[in-house]
Design goal:
A: alpha/beta, globular, B: disordered C terminus
Chain lengths: 122, 455
């Protein structure tokens, strides 16, 4: 698995999976933190796009859980959120996020980011 | 030192002084009197008398130093000098008393000043407190505002994000099949609508908070508002296979409110109920409580967890949106409802049981007795009363019915041909008869039968 998109907004899931799959990446989606952890363990994605405001388990806790997990901590976590305040950004990095992107995002930029990252992994 | 012991103290000092300086006959004694005065400040007449008695006793008690006979005038000189001294002492004491009094006065004035100053300081302190209190309130309001703005920015970003993403996708890839293309376009369309709706609701909230909303308060018939709400929500409910039922008592006390705003509250509650009820029914109704009218929307939906029941009335708090295919709310609906109900002097709240459903209800205060009792009585009297308008001209009938309904009556209309049947079937409280085109159709006894309840 290349990318896991975690967002409770179905349209974010739809647009990201559409462009990423079209560009040849294997993509999975999750709608909340718990589901994200489950899918991350099972599918071992290289990159996770993570929303912050989600039901059940929010993005910050999910990020921390990923980074504290010995087997998952290598995953590149990109927080993708509508919460664009400096304080959220700081907390994101404190929880171990590798990158922080604010909505609205450009699918094209996401694709080139993923391409660059996965190229670096290979 | 106590005032009363001044003279004794003075004389106590005088005794050794007299002894060591040669006794009472010595001319030095003339110096002792002023000394006495110095030692006895604040001397009064009583003290002078005491001093005099003590002095006389001194003559008797102290042994005379052996200088032989006194001159004959000596006693007289002594007495005169003593009396003079006593007078001086008295004057001086008066003067000192006056000085002390004026000093006391000055002190009093100062005390007064200090007190008033203290009072002023206290007032100032109170003012400072109230200022700092309002400052705290302002800070809290500011924090709320900041919270609101960050919420707004977050909420606006979501639909904006969809619009940007899907339009960019459509622009980037030329070979997307027609169906997907349509799907993306409809998402863009839906999300722009959401953005517009959100903008309106945000404006609504801001205007309500700034107190810039004009409330058109009037006597309202909650039953009618419920009717309109149900009518407007019917299509949405039908598309979700949900039945909306109405439950209103026959007679309702009047409440005062803004009809359109109350309708807005009901529409919001019903659309929420439809959204969260996968199958089943929704009941909209009124309960007549002693001092309030309780308007409720009950659904057989999934219910709300106790910890969420308060929060759902907060701005941007949403539940259940993660489920796919559900229209996304703005997260402002219930907070707007709350503001509207509170502006009516009422309260809104929710009862719920997980898996069983929820009841959202708001209470509107009934008009008190003092609150235009007459109008209230009138309203109560006419509401629910049936008036039959017998009039052959359709237009006239319509106008009369409109006027009566506006006044709170329930009306029916009939032309003279139908009159007898309609009267028998509906038993109205009153009948208004227009001039019939053909009087033969009117059956006189039928018209006397309904109790003409009011004149």
């Amino acid at each position: 698995m290349d990318v896991l998109v975690v967002d409770d907004d179905p349209y974010v899931q739809r647009s990201l999976t559409f462009v990423l799959r079209r560009e040849g990446f294997a993509v999975e989606v999750a709608s909340n933190g718990e589901e994200a952890m489950f899918k991350a363990r099972n599918t071992r994605p290289k990159i996770v796009f993570l929303d912050i405001m989600m039901p059940k388990m929010n993005g910050f806790s999910t990020c921390r859980s990923i980074k504290e997990d010995v087997e998952l901590k290598e995953i590149y976590v990109i927080i993708l959120t509508g919460k664009g305040q400096e304080i959220d950004r700081e907390q994101g990095f404190r929880e171990g996020a590798d990158e922080f992107i604010t909505k609205p995002f450009s699918p094209r930029e996401i694709v080139s980011k993923v391409r660059a990252l996965l190229g670096a992994f290979h | 030192m106590n005032k009363k012991i001044y003279p004794f103290f003075g004389l106590l000092c005088l005794i050794p002084a007299l002894y060591f300086t040669g006794g009472v006959e010595s001319y030095f004694r003339l110096l002792y009197y002023p000394l006495m005065v110095l030692l006895i400040p604040g001397l009064n007449a009583e003290a002078v008398l005491q001093a005099a008695l003590t002095f006389i006793m001194l003559y008797a008690l102290l042994p005379l130093p052996g200088h032989g006979q006194y001159p004959s005038y000596f006693v007289a000189v002594n007495v005169v000098s003593f009396l003079l001294t006593a007078v001086v002492c008295g004057k001086l004491s008066d003067y000192l008393q006056k000085e002390r009094d004026s000093l006391q006065k000055t002190t009093d004035i100062f005390h007064g000043l200090t007190n008033s100053l203290n009072l002023k300081v206290m007032n100032q302190q109170a003012k400072m407190d109230s200022i700092s209190e309002s400052y705290e309130r302002l800070l809290a309001a500011d924090r709320n505002k900041t919270h609101f703005i960050s919420g707004v920015s977050h909420e606006l970003r979501a639909p904006l994000s969809s619009i940007r993403s899907f339009s960019e996708i459509l622009l980037t890839y030329d070979d997307i099949d027609m169906e997907t293309r349509k799907e993306f376009l409809s998402i863009i369309n839906e999300e722009s609508e959401r953005l517009a709706r959100l903008t309106n609701e945000i404006l609504d909230v801001v205007r309500m908070e700034a107190g810039k909303v004009e409330w058109h308060m009037d006597y309202v018939n909650t039953s009618e508002i419920i009717d309109s709400a149900i009518r407007m929500m019917q299509p949405l409910a039908e598309s979700s296979d949900i039945v909306i039922e109405k439950q209103v008592p026959d007679r309702l006390s009047p409440v005062k409110g803004d009809k359109n705003r109350l309708l807005q509250v009901l529409l919001n509650l019903i659309s929420n109920a439809v959204k969260f009820t996968p199958r089943g029914s929704i009941t909209v109704g009124v309960e007549d409580l002693p001092h309030e009218e309780k308007i409720f929307v009950t659904d057989t939906g999934e219910g709300i967890y106790p910890e969420e029941r308060e929060k759902i009335f907060e701005e941007f708090y949403r539940i259940g949106d993660e489920l796919h295919g559900r229209p996304k709310g703005s997260g402002l609906g219930l907070s707007i409802c709350k503001k509207i109900v509170e502006a009516h002097g009422g309260s809104i709240s929710v009862d719920s049981e997980i898996g069983r459903g929820s009841t959202f209800f708001f209470k509107l205060p009934k008009l008190g007795v003092e609150d235009s009792a007459e109008e209230a009585r009138y309203f109560e009297y006419v509401s629910g009363r049936h008036v039959l308008v017998l009039e052959d001209s359709v237009t006239m009938r319509h106008i009369m019915r409109l006027a009566l309904e506006k006044a709170g009556y329930k009306t029916m209309g009939a032309d003279s041909r139908m009159a007898a049947e309609v009267v028998k079937a509906s038993r109205p409280d009153a009948i208004i008869i227009g001039y019939p085109d053909n009087a033969d159709y009117v059956d006189e006894p039928t018209f006397r039968s309904p109790s003409t309840a009011f004149s």
